[in-house]
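Anyone else keep sequences and structure tokens together like this?

Example one:
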Amino acid sequence: MPSLIPEALAAGSASGGQSGSSWSFLIIIVVIGVLFYFMLIRPQQKRQKQHREMVSQLSAGDEVVTSGGVLGRVTRVNEQYIGVEIAKGVEVRVQKSSVGAVLPKGTVKHG
């Protein structure tokens, strides 16, 4: 029974067109990487930057919704935490980063 491995190696080395296909493969990988950056990574970085700016501009009196869905009015602001009044006389402390959105004034009604 003859071995097929030497014949396959000889056929592969005789073709000589391997360098062109390796360059096209490299170009495809680079194009996919660029598309991945512009379609996924860059938009995510923009959203993170907007969130950081929103959180840094929080002040007492702002009405917010947390990532957990709790609505309330900001009563105090520290470095990492904010006090959120969710009902009259009921205040919770949450991390600044858990604020999902700042709502328009008058959205949260206590009573």
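And example two:
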Amino acid sequence: MRRIATLARLELTADEIETFAEQLSAILAYAGQVQQVDTSGAAAATTAELHPHFRSDDLAPCLPRDVVLKQAPDADRSAGVFKVPRVLGS
């Protein structure tokens, strides 16, 4: 749990670590039970079959890149990219 907290950049108390470790163990035990269910007779389904109300992925016009970059707080317009704060490895 300490390793997961470190990776997620969470500062947890000893009580929280103990509580979350118990909860995570219970979740993983349940996932193990689910993996043992025999699904050999079940037909595969796609997301579209499960959720027929989803819209189709039709191409549509979007905002021009120059307009968007002019509105961005920190963008490199010459490179055509946004600059964002570093997240990994910082």
